């Protein structure tokens, strides 16, 4: 018996199959990178170390398609969670966020959305937008 409840197990129990998480670079920045906070970058956010697409970003659609193909071939995945991973994925006007997040609606096998962000880049309007996806997706 496992000493902890794995997220992958939770997803498998909820959706009845293996759910593969696809990390994508949606072209966002952050207040450390753009200088809003007076810094010239951040030691915690070298996305080349953990985000496959951050060195040569492709469209969100291309990243999702490639990630789904990989997850299907390598792991037999049938369902997918899209992880808006690179940088701060709420650091944009709400209209821009909605346009990028809505791309997941074009892929019926996507069951979840995870959004990497920072607490100082989220307001009530953004939280309302994120909450709107919770009726159709697992949202993290």
Strand and helix map with partners:
Layout: H1 7-15, E1 19-24, H2 60-75, E2 79-84, H3 94-101, E3 110-115, H4 124-133, E4 138-139
Parallel strand pairs: 1-2, 2-3, 3-4
Description of the molecule:
Helix content is 31%, strand content 14%. With 140 residues, it is of the alpha/beta class. A four-stranded parallel β-sheet has the order 1-2-3-4. The two termini are 26 Å apart.
Output the radius of gyration: 16 Å
Distance between the termini: 26 Å
Widest β-sheet, arrangement of strands: 1-2-3-4
- Percent of residues in helices comes to 25-40%
Tell me the structural class.
alpha/beta
Number of helices: 4
Quick overview:
This protein has 140 residues and is of the alpha/beta class.
What characteristics describe this protein?
alpha/beta, 31% helix, 140 residues
